[in-house]
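Q: I'm writing up a methods section and want to include an example of the input and output format. Could you take the sequence below and give the corresponding predicted structure tokens, formatted cleanly so I can copy it straight into the document?
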Amino acid sequence: MTGIRSTMTRRGRTSPSTKDGPGLNHGDIADHNSRIALELLRIFGALTRRDLSQRLGLTEPAITGILRRLEGRGLVTSRRQSGASRYPVTEFMMRPQGAVALGLRLARRAAAAVLVDAAGGIVAEQRDVSPGELIAAGQALLARKPVEAEILGVGAALSPDDGVSIEAVRAAFAPLTVLANADNATAATAERLIGAGDRDGGFVSILVTRAGVRAGLSIGGRPFHGIHGFAGGIGAMRTGQGRAPLAEGLSPDRLDALVAASGDLEAAIAEWAREAADHLLDAVVAISGVVVPGLIVIGGDLPDAAVDAVVAEILAAPVAIGGRPTTTSWMPPLRRSQLPAAGVAEGAALLPIVEFLLPDPKRLREPPVQADGATARA
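A: Here is the clean output for your methods example:
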């Protein structure tokens, strides 16, 4: 299989979370625990000190220290709990506008810039800009950030047809930290954090672009790139009755040609979906047999109606296994991604947020740490 290598490049600050094992000093411990607390507030909403203490296994005084640090950075706010008894109870919430990050999709025919807040919510965006306008579009979005918001950095989604070089991005946004990863990996990041979420067994995000078809894999909350960094390059897989590459069978350009030839969008989508399903089903069967994900999502540079149509074709199709027809009921759930363009630009913007605010995906299963370095109770 071919595809763009999944890499992560960074410029600027180095996060304490990249060190091996839980923090070795008080600063590392505080950072580790603050990230976990912020993630809990992001996921569950308003929580009290007692709630956080029970979920983290830390004492309430330790929680108070964590919350003070987060409030000092403008990332957490508090209020009196509604309906509380005569003894006032304070609850704490994440304050998304406390920090922002910029995401750039560098693809030549689908360049986009998205500014997101600390919770992944879109603050401002520009889609379908030309490569020559992308850097200026990103700089304009940064100028629209909330006045008090910290700029965490810039994320870039790389693809085989980039119209802007990562070196140009680094030069244009210096001295901000610039992180980069493959577009299928950023799509999976967005799906995990602001899309369908993780699942038991992980999930696979199939990204269909005009430059090919790639897959992002998340297993146990962690992105999976393979030993050599090429996992997810499924576009060259031979699929369908004609054994054509998957990238050809799902090509958005082919759909455009059918629409131009017939002039009937609905009919063109139906014809495209019937043939595309033959190719995609082979890929889904192969993925399901190797990874066994809890969910498969598909999206990218295709109209929503086209993705819905091909998913419907697959779910209605019999599959031959061992020479005997069967149904697709054994497959993991297959659905269209709810993120625009499958979240490539949003996932790029989330790279600095994961790097500097949220728990490192490689350490998601690690518990908080006490001040003396001991692991907190479960």
